Amino acid sequence: MVFNGTKEAERLIRDELIPSGITDERVLDALRKVKRELFIPQSLRDKAYGNYPLPIGENQTISQPYIVALMTQALDIKRDNTVLEIGTGSGYQAAILARLASTVYTIERIESLLMKARTNLYSQGYRNIFLIGGDGTAGLPEYAPFDRIIVTAAAPKVPETLLEQLKNGGKLVVPVGGRHVQDLKLVEKAKNGRIYKQSLCGCRFVPLIGKNGWKD
Length: 216
Ligand code: SAM
Known about the structure:
The chain has about 220 residues and is α/β, with parallel strands linked by helices. It has helices at about 5-15, 25-35, 65-75, 90-100, 110-125, 160-165; strands spanning about 55, 60, 80-85, 105-110, 130-135, 145-150, 165-175, 180-190, 195-205. It is built from 6 helices and 9 strands.
C-alpha cells in the first residue's frame, strides 16, 4: 500500500490521541503539520504514525506520539514563550514546540544525534530552534529564565538546576522515577515562586545521563 503521511496522522489523531484526552487544537494542529516520518530512519517509515516510540540510533528513541502530545498539551505554551528542551533526540518534539512558541532551545548530549537533528530541522525551514550540544541537566543559564521547560529523558528527581531556570508562572514537564519506569510530572512555579507538582501518568523514557541525572 502507498504510504500517505497526512492520512496516517489524521487516523492517529482521531482514533488514538483525541480519545485519550488530547483536545488542545493548537497541539493537534502542530501534530498534523510536523511530519513524523521525516524524523525517523527511512526503513521505519511505514511505522511513523504508530502510537509507540521508535529507534533513532545510538540506543535512543523518538517518543510515543501520545506522550509527545500529552507533554506539549500540559505545557500550555503561549505564542511569545521561550522553551527549553532537554533531549533533542530526533528533533521531532522540538519541531512541535517551535510551531507553538517563539523560541526553542534544545540540548542533546550525543553529538551525532545533535548534528542530524540540526541538519534536518534547518532543511525543513525551522529558524526559531537553537540546538546545543552538552549535558542538559545543567540547563542553559546564559538564556534563562524560561517560560517552559521539557525534559524528554528520565530523571531520578526533578533537576533543581532546571527549576531555578524556570520563570515564575512557568511550567516544566519531566519524567521522574527509576531508570526504566517513571511518573510524568507537571511542575508549576507560581507567580510567588511556590512550586506545585502533579503526576500526569506512568511512562518509560530512556535515562537522563548527566551531572544532575543518572551516571553513564
Ligand atoms: N525529544 C526527542 C525526540 O523528539 O526525538 C526524544 C528524546 S529521547 C527519548 C531522549 C534523548 O535525551 C536522547 O537523545 C538522549 O541522548 C538525550 N539525553 C539524555 N541525557 C541527556 C542530557 N543530560 N542532556 C541532553 N540530552 C540528554
